[in-house]
Amino acid sequence: MIHVEPNHGVMGATVTGIDLHQPLADTDFADVLRALGRHCVLRFPDQLLSAAELRDFSARFGALQSGLGTSEPGVPEVSILSNVKEGGKLIGIPDAGQDWHTDMTYNRTPGFVNALVAYKVPVRDGVVLGATEFCDTAAAYEGLSDALKQRLADASATHDLNMYWEHMRREKGSSRAPLTPEQRRARPPVEHPVFLTHPVSGRRIIYVNPGFTDFINGVERAESDAILTELFTHIMRPEYRYVHRWQQDDLLIWDHLSSWHYAVPDYGPDEHRLMKRCQVMADKIFDPDFIKRALGTQLAAGPT
């Protein structure tokens, strides 16, 4: 029987009593989806899934991204995040997520769930390094002033992959090459509402992030920058933050719609970290029929 133990903080829970090596029963998937909507970040300890098992589990939530970065051989939906080298060559992406962002908001169909399995975690003097930090954008919305909620109630913002890409190259020393003109045409800037209603929890969320959000539409650039700075500073307040400290064989899933995340790069090139990841798109989660089928109940909150 599934047991969900909430963390003693704003977000996060540990889920036990389930074997993710096996296909999830519909009732178990409903419990996991509800827990994800409620807690945003779910840890499943001692779940060292194979790449194929990770793919099959993740696919219950929506379509899977493939073909980005270094993928698992034979399983293109599973990417490898790692600073490990074999034959002098990196086996995965070494710097993924090393700044605050929400995945795939630069897509017209953004990300919904990230699923990571910890195959190897860096340890120094008995302390595990390479934590992942989170901010809860639903809790942050609740803490906004009424004036700002009203001002931005119908606002939208433009998100751009190239903004993040160049920031990583310029500020973080990333070795990634600039996006080609073809890549930029394939990922043009897109617009999303500044606020969304979460389709599972029904909570309002702030849907901008410092990684990909370039500007708020319909206002002068200086005013847009000031509003985004105010929102970003608010979301980063300590009461809205949670740090996940990895353990070997952890499976961690989190909800992109109501969180930011940041992979802490506090380990060296010889302190090895190896994660395998599935990126689930938000192609189903805003469909009321999907929610009804998945949860076996009436839709609690319609899409925005």
Automatic annotation (TrEMBL):
Q: Where is the TauD/TfdA-like domain?
A: 9-278
Is the Iron keyword given for this protein?
A: yes
- Please give the Gene3D superfamilies that the UniProt record associates with this protein: Clavaminate synthase-like
Record-linked SUPFAM superfamilies: Clavaminate synthase-like (SSF51197)
InterPro entries reported for this sequence = AtsK-like, TauD-like_sf, TauD/TfdA-like
**Record has Metal-binding as a keyword:** yes
Q: Which PANTHER family match?
A: ALPHA-KETOGLUTARATE-DEPENDENT SULFONATE DIOXYGENASE
Q: What is this protein called?
A: TauD/TfdA family dioxygenase
Species for this entry: Neoroseomonas terrae
Q: What is the lineage of its organism?
A: Bacteria, Pseudomonadati, Pseudomonadota, Alphaproteobacteria, Acetobacterales
